[in-house]
Specification:
By secondary structure, this protein is α+β, with helices and mostly antiparallel strands. The chain has five domains: about 30-110, no CATH class; about 125-200, Alpha-Beta Plaits (2-Layer Sandwich), CATH 3.30.70; about 205-345, Gyrase A, domain 2, CATH 3.30.1360; about 365-565 and about 660-845, Multidrug efflux transporter AcrB transmembrane domain (Multidrug efflux transporter AcrB transmembrane fold); about 580-655, 2-Layer Sandwich (Alpha-Beta Plaits). The chain has 26 helices and 19 strands. Helix 1 crosses helix 12 (about 365-415), helix 15 (about 490-520) packs across helix 22 and helix 22 (about 720-750) runs parallel beside helix 24 (about 790-820). The longest helix has about 50 residues, at about 365-415. The relative contact order is 0.09.
């Protein structure tokens, strides 16, 4: 047994070990504490420097100890690496300022916890940006073009800061020519380069250098027409001393960076400096190849935002579509530059305001959300242990591994920020994750009832459930891939999160859980697994009720969609429709939960109150976001409820949608492509009639969930889009369970009619379908009962989706399959494929 399972043991230990290591440290450590603990030489002198840096911060000379320490070290030419941190290998870097930057940036980065919280839980930093009026006026001729540039700038900023869709920033238009950017877990005191990353246009050009006027450390006096003087700041690799090399460069570029396909930051060959590697698309590669072919031996200046960074000599034609920008970059600067190059702005942006943003959720809302998540997880665990005893304990143990993998990959690999809706999504993923365990346990129950030993039942139950689990999860993986491919913003982020959840479930259930259970049984540490039942065996003619159920459900769908069209724009919340934000001064702080309650009592359910304070000083103000035309109603209600707070309105702005039309269209496109993919995959793996049934049931579940959601008075927000898209994945999971049993019945019962086959299959999986739905339902129910605000909306969506998915697997998917084949088994057998045998399935059986 050990030899057979050695690879599982090694693989499981390696994955669990990596994920445990990747999550440490979970929370931020104070920079001073971490830096002091990392000192390996002259610790007393370093503590004195820290004390002096803190004095600068207190006196207002520096914004933080981090900045003050860098200033003191640079002013006194103190080499922090050699004096206090000799363990850091800085390669050939000699410049003291650069060495200090590398050391302090590394210490700051390492002091940060892997688990970063979002704007709703922790707050962050905010900026108000404005289109540069001169640049905009020069490049636009109408208000529509100006609005188009504003929209484009928002898309570019979102791509810079939320490329994976998991960072959860807020980026939206404010007024006619401004953009609001709120970034979670960031502060400008220690990260001043964030401002450059926000507003940098990243306009790249390639310009030829004058052939006769050679580069020199001496500034030339005569500049020919059509050329300009530019320079590169260099430093000696021997001494680290800085010097400047002057170049005479063409004003008119030979080529621009409009055809960049991607930019990445890489260390140089010495490992001490960083550079940016650029890949061109096919058009850019040809243009760059033609440019280098036509100018052999010439120096070509690489200019970014008007600054010359390098001027390499063209020794040979470069036709591979690649080039690099070198310069005195550290890692931060190179990564910032690469992000900007990947998403260049059409027009420059001017920073008008910088402010710190408090958490958008009150302490009680955060506490209730976390409490609801814990209760939901506990309910799922209790359910599994109650019905499957020792097997349930194993499932709960591997569930912990599942959670560990999800958090580790999200935080360490994808650098996601954790929001309350994100936590809710993970809880719901937990509910769905145990479905695979239930499928295996229910198959084991059948094998034990047939008189097989516990060891044989474990192996046989696992193998019989394997195909169903793989099919269901593979379709979910395809849907995730479509969301990541076609989606942007929250849709792409949800695709990433769900992808991690599906992969971690497959690993924890199919490898780790099966390994643990097999070892326990074969070592006879477990001699019996008590399995309780939620429902007894049933014998219902589901085909008989198929048409009435189908018609009734689609009446509900049509009614819901009709209400959607009747309400029009009213179904959209602030995330989609925009709204107003009112700025308020106050004498007494009011808890944001109380403000939400007052607004709700006044008939305005969706608001977002946050406290912000200007960076560098200034009093704290309250900002209240509300639907368009509702801000005055909310303010008046809060003024009346809390007169002692002395609320005074000092400004109001219209805010645009944080989810643009492009994201809406991408969401619809993702749903459409997902439906076609489900059809194609199920048709390939099962048969075309199965594919039609799966597509119909998934579409039914999405439309019904949307319809009931709107009928009950809810509005769409960013998390709702992700929750509704999740229904497609959950729906196919339930449908595949039914289809797999129908396919098995067709093989095992060669003389039964199609009606008998379909009814028999549904009757046999009915109990386990209810069981798998119950675990996710319990998780969603706890969020709905004990959560508040957006958690209730997410939970409500899932409660509806779980019910509709369970219903549609039986009364939509199976019935459509039956009708497609006109109730004739022979029609199925013309197209029926043979149930596949996976290579590892055959090898596993052989090894028993």
């Amino acid at each position: 047994m050990l030899k057979r399972n050695l690879w599982k043991i090694v693989f499981s230990v390696a994955v669990i070990g990596f994920c445990a290591w990747a999550l440490f440290p979970i929370q931020d450590r104070p920079f001073v504490d971490y830096a002091t603990s990392s000192v390996t030489a002259k610790s007393t002198e370093f503590k004195a420097l820290i004390k002096e840096a803190d004095a600068r911060r207190i006196n207002g000379q520096s914004p933080s100890i981090f900045v003050a320490l860098k200033e003191i070290a640079n002013e006194r030419r103190i080499d922090l690496a050699s004096q206090f941190f000799p363990q850091f290998n800085l390669g050939a870097t000699k410049n003291i300022e650069r060495r200090n930057t590398i050391v302090l940036d590394h210490l700051l980065k390492q002091s940060k916890g892997k688990l970063q919280l979002g704007l709703d839980l922790r707050g962050g930093v905010g900026f108000t940006l404005e289109l540069d009026e001169k640049a905009t006026a020069a490049s636009t001729s109408s208000e529509s073009e100006k609005k188009e540039k504003l929209t484009k700038a928002i898309e570019i900023l979102d791509a810079r800061f939320n490329a994976g869709g998991v960072s959860e920033p807020i980026i939206r238009p404010v007024g006619e020519n401004r953009i609001e950017v709120q970034l979670p877990g960031v502060n400008t005191r220690d990260n001043p380069e964030i401002i450059d990353q926000i507003k940098r246009p990243a306009i790249l050009s390639f310009r030829l250098v004058h052939e006769q006027i050679q580069p020199s450390q001496t500034r030339p006096t005569d500049i020919p027409p059509g050329y300009e003087l530019m320079w590169i700041d260099e430093e000696s690799r021997e001494t680290g001393d800085a010097y400047r090399v002057f170049y005479v460069v063409k004003q008119r570029p030979e080529m621009t960076g409009g055809n960049i396909d991607g930019a990445q930051a890489h260390p140089d060959q010495y490992g001490s400096r960083w550079e940016v590697h650029i890949n061109f698309n096919s058009a850019g590669a040809k243009e760059f190849g033609d440019l280098t072919t036509a100018n052999p031996g010439r120096l070509m200046g690489i200019v970014l935002d008007g600054k010359l960074y390098s001027a390499p000599r063209i020794n040979e034609p470069i036709t591979g579509g690649r080039c690099q920008i070198t310069g005195n970059f550290d890692q931060r600067e190179a990564e910032t530059l690469a992000k900007a190059l990947n998403n260049p702005l059409d027009v420059p942006l001017v920073v008008k305001e910088q402010y710190e943003v408090g958490p958008s959720l009150a302490e009680d809302a955060i506490s209730s959300g976390l409490r609801a998540s814990i209760i939901g997880t506990a309910l799922v665990a209790a359910f599994m242990i109650t019905f499957y005893s020792v097997g349930g304990l194993v499932a709960v143990g591997t569930l912990a591994i599942n959670i560990l993998i999800i958090f580790a990959l999200l935080t360490n690999v994808f650098h996601a920020t954790l929001t309350l809706p994100g936590i809710a999504g993970i809880v719901l993923t937990i509910g769905m994750a145990v479905d695979a365990n239930i499928l295996i346990f229910e198959r084991m129950r059948e094998e034990l009832a047939a008189g097989k030993s516990l060891s044989t039942a474990n192996q046989s139950g696992y193998m019989k459930a394997l195909t169903t689990i793989l099919d269901a999860h593979f379709v979910q993986l395809i849907i995730c891939g479509i969301m990541i491919w076609l989606g942007t913003g929250p849709i792409k982020g949800f695709g990433v999160t769900l992808l991690i959840g599906v992969l971690s479930t497959l690993f924890s259930v199919l490898i780790t859980a099966h390994l643990v259970l097999e070892v326990f049984i074969e070592k006879e540490w477990i001699k019996k697994i008590t399995m309780r039942r939620m429902l007894k065996d049933i014998h219902v003619d589901f085909i008989k009720f198929g048409k009435p159920a189908f018609i009734a459900s689609w009446i509900v769908v049509v009614l819901g969609i009709a209400v959607v069209f009747m309400k029009g724009e009213k179904i959209y919340g602030i995330d989609f429709a925009g709204g107003d934000v009112v700025s308020v001064q106050f004498n007494e702080r009011i808890d944001t939960a109380k403000i939400r309650q007052v607004a709700k009592d006044a008939g305005v359910a969706e608001i977002s109150p946050t406290y912000v304070s200007a960076i560098g000083g200034g009093s704290e103000i309250l900002k209240i976001e509300a639907p368009e035309g509702k801000s005055d109603i909310v303010l008046a209600a809060v003024q009346k409820a809390y007169p002692n707070a002395a609320l005074v309105k000092i400004g109001e702005n219209h805010i645009g949608a944080s989810i643009g039309k492009e994201i809406e269209l991408n969401a619809l496109l993702a749903v459409g492509v997902s439906m076609l993919t489900i059809l194609a995959y199920i048709a390939f793996r099962f048969e075309f009639g199965f594919g039609i049934g799966a597509m119909f049931s998934s579409l039914h579940d999405i439309l019904m969930t949307i319809g009931i959601f709107v009928l009950c008075g809810h509005q769409f927000s960013a998390p709702m889009v992700a929750a509704i898209l999740c229904i497609a994945g959950y729906s196919i999971n339930e449908t595949v369970v039914v289809f797999d049993r129908i396919r098995e019945e067709l093989r095992d019962n060669p003389t039964g009619s199609l009606r008998v086959i379909v009814n028999s299959a549904i009757n046999k999986v009915f109990a386990r379908t209810i069981m798998t739905a119950t675990t996710t339902f319990l998780a969603a129910l706890s969020l709905y009962v004990f959560g508040s605000g957006v958690l209730k909306d997410i939970a409500f969506t899932f409660l509806v989706g779980i019910l509709t998915s369970t219903f549609s697997a039986i009364f939509i998917a199976a019935q459509v399959f039956y009708w497609w084949h006109k109730g004739d088994r022979k029609h199925v057998e013309k197209h029926q494929d043979v149930k596949p045998t996976y290579e590892w399935a055959g090898s596993s059986k052989a090894s028993q």
